[in-house]
Amino acid sequence: MSTEGTAPMNTDSDIAPELAPLHLTDKPDGPGAAMVISAGLGFFVVGLLTILAEMSEDFGTWLGKWSGDAGVGALAGKTTIASLVYFAALALLWAMWRKKDVDIKKAFYLGLTLGILGAIATFPPFFVLFAP
Predict the structure, then answer these.
(1) What is the pLDDT of residue 7?
(2) Tens digits of per-residue pLDDT, 41-87?
(3) Cα–Cα distance between 37 and 31 in angstroms, integer?
(4) How many CA atoms lie within 13 A of 32 on its CB side?
(5) Average pLDDT, whole number, for the chain?
(6) What is the spatial distance between Cα 12 and Cα 126, in angstroms, rounded to a whole number?
């Protein structure tokens, strides 16, 4: 999927010659990059909301209202909002990149970084540091 004036991309047969007989068509990396980044963003939002709920009792109570009668407290609000952010980011990025090649390594590392930050933020010894 190279364009005029740019260096051609490596094809699957350049990277793995055993794939050459399969005659696979090149597909854009954009949709995969959109998935990776939006997943990392969703996890980051869970961590961010965890810290915010720890910092503010009112915010934690507000998040708890998302649970209805399930009795899971603020967790319902955190996961619902994070899911909404994930799907919104996925729709936006997928629409922007569905036919484009993007730097999949950068997308991977961005998604991984966001996911790691989200995981750290949900770790109790970390988020209790933000308690009033």
Answers:
(1) 41
(2) 999 999 999 999 999 999 988 988 887 777 788 888 999 999 999 99
(3) 10
(4) 11
(5) 86
(6) 43
Q: Rounded to whole angstroms, how far apart are CA atoms 53 and 96? A: 33
pLDDT value at position 17? 76
Q: Return d(Cα 67, Cα 75) in angstroms, integer.
A: 8
Over 80: is that where the pLDDT of 129 sits? yes
Write down how long the chain is: 132
Break the chain into its structural domains and give their ranges: 29-130
> What are the φ/ψ torsions at residue 29 (nearest 5 degrees)?
-85, -10
What distance in Å separates the CA atoms of residue 15 and residue 3, rounded to the nearest whole number? 20
- Predicted confidence at residue 82, as pLDDT, reads 96
Answer whether 38's CB lies under 8 Å from 89's CB.
yes
Residue 98, SS3 per DSSP: coil
Q: DSSP for 4-57?
A: TTSPPPPPHHHH-GGGGGG-PPP--SHHHHHHHHHHHHHHHHHHHHHHHHHH-H
What is the rounded CA–CA span in Å between residue 34 and residue 54?
A: 30
Amino acid found at 43: F
